[in-house]
Design a protein that fits this description.
The structure holds two protein chains of two kinds. By secondary structure, chain A is an all-alpha fold. In chain A, 67% of the residues lie in helices and 3% in strands. Chain A contains seven helices and two strands; from the N terminus they run H-H-E-E-H-H-H-H-H. In chain B, helix 2 (22-38) packs across helix 7. The chains are: A mainly alpha, B mainly alpha.
Chain lengths: 230, 253
């Protein structure tokens, strides 16, 4: 579930908004290097996939629900900077066109999924790749581990936010148990889906997988040439 | 075409809200949501007005309620959470009929439910009156960075491509006797997802290359669209103003 309006108090909403805006601004600058003619459509496609994945909701106790995030998947496919931007667009569209997640909580949602989800996923992915043998087959496994851990990380970050600026007092212990335990289970699902998708992609078009760079020869890369005739 | 998954929330119509330029609506919606969330608890009157305003906005779209209800379902888990709050929150207890509930929890539950409902109603009114295309143009006019607008417009374009591709692949799977029954069908579905990604991308890649060869430079041209006049901005600001004024009156009295 995305954080809805009125869930976090105004100062926390504002603070997360500032953090999210700073993160997105940095991503905008750093993504320019990754985002050429070819990857811009890829970022849009990743956004569609993440969007579809986030539509599947699993009920969690106490009336909240959890869903896949897709942050690690996006980071492995297009790189963490572009992934942050893709997730930001997805969350904004959900808030504006689907009323899923509050507009005032947009900052919190972007921070949770676009920053924590993506970057924890990416960091774990890099770590796992460093440990695993440097073969293409390691990429989906590392991505799955990243996906599996990024979900509970985002859920626990949310609990932290709620502890700081929750609108209603709830004993923290029960919130940690409900969110942490359930999202650990959802994380396994996220890891499985990440494994299957990245696995299928690495087998057919490894050149499209950002996280597999350095393992693929550069011979089959699409090239757009300067026009020859003026 | 049938029901395609994608960004098809918009419902055609010719109401004031349909005609209002998208960027004015985005700003108005944002102002409304911010004002509503900023109302201090318990805020009986301002939050009631906010919910009524939300209902009024949806009514103003002229879209039949039976189309709107399914969209409001998104709020159900959240309302359930609010309903549980009085029982799980800490603080002094009070009697509510035969039940002992937390006083703070009860007040928070009301504020949460009211704020959430008002915001969801307003956002729904926005969603059914704004096409994805209008949203792209509106965000562009609000000077949202080009990169984000670019990703958004590719997302809007790919939603239909992916939906169509998915339908074709499902038909192909089922005509070969596949039925998703147990865990054993997961690898097949996973490969389908991967193939779906590659096929959608390659289709988009072909479109993209043909666009480049026709002189697309990577920046999105701004189209001449209806500009927002003073009246439009005033209309867009009205819901937020209503809530703010009621809140000010409630605090003063």
């Amino acid at each position: 579930m995305h954080v809805p309006d009125g869930f976090l108090d105004a100062p926390t909403s504002l603070a997360t908004g500032v953090v999210a805006a700073a993160g997105v601004a940095l991503a905008l600058r750093r993504a320019r290097a990754d985002l050429d003619d070819r990857t811009a459509p890829l970022a849009g496609l990743v956004a569609v996939f993440v969007f579809a994945g986030q539509m599947i909701n699993f009920p969690v106790g106490a009336g909240t629900s959890g869903h896949l995030i897709g942050g690690a998947l996006a980071a492995v496919l297009v790189g963490p900077w572009v992934a942050t931007l893709s997730l930001t667009v997805v969350v904004a569209v959900q808030a504006l066109l689907f009323a899923d997640g509050g507009l005032t909580a947009l900052g919190a949602n972007v921070a949770l999924m676009g920053l924590v989800g993506v970057w924890v996923g990416w960091a774990v992915f890099r770590l796992a790749r460093a440990v695993l043998p440097g073969r293409l087959a390691s990429v989906p496994i590392a991505a799955a581990v990243g996906g599996a851990l990024s979900v509970p990380a985002a859920a626990l970050t949310f609990v932290g936010l709620y502890a700081v600026g929750g609108a209603a007092p709830i004993p923290l212990g029960s919130l940690v148990t409900a969110m942490g335990a359930w999202h650990a289970v959802i994380g396994i699902g996220e890891g499985l889906i990440t494994l299957l998708v990245v696995g299928a992609l690495v087998r057919t078009r490894p050149d499209l997988v950002h996280g597999a760079r350095g393992l693929v020869g550069a011979e089959d890369v699409l090239e757009i040439r300067e026009r020859a005739v003026r | 075409m049938g029901a395609r998954p994608g960004l098809h929330l918009h419902i055609d119509g010719d109401s004031v809200l349909h005609r209002l330029p998208a960027h004015a609506k985005v700003v108005g919606l944002l102002a409304f949501a911010l004002t509503t969330v900023a109302v201090p608890a318990p805020g009986w009157w301002p939050l009631t007005v906010a919910m009524l305003t939300g209902c009024g906005l949806v009514a103003l779209t002229g879209v039949a309620w039976r189309y709107v209800w399914p969209r409001l379902l998104i709020e159900v888990p959240f309302l359930l959470f609010a309903a549980v709050l009085p029982f799980v929150a800490s603080g002094p207890r009070m009697a509510l009929g035969p039940l002992q509930v937390s006083e703070v929890g009860l007040l928070s539950a009301w504020a949460l439910a009211a704020k959430g409902t008002a915001a969801v109603l307003a956002a729904t009114a926005f969603a059914v009156t704004t096409t994805p295309r209008d949203l792209v143009v509106g965000l562009q006019r609000l000077h949202v960075p080009d990169t984000l607008v670019g990703i958004l417009s590719f997302m809007v374009r790919y939603a239909a491509v992916v939906g169509d591709e998915m339908r074709r692949m499902r038909i192909a799977r089922e005509s070969r006797g596949f039925r998703a029954a147990s865990l054993r069908s997961w690898p097949t579905l996973g490969r389908t997802l991967g193939a779906l990604f590659v096929r959608s991308f390659e289709r988009g890649e072909r479109v993209h290359v043909s666009m480049v060869s026709r002189g697309w430079t990577g920046t999105f041209p701004t189209f001449a669209t209806a500009t927002a006049g003073l009246v439009d901005w005033a209309c867009a600001a009205l819901p937020a103003l209503l809530v703010a004024l009621t809140a000010a009156w409630a605090l003063a009295s």
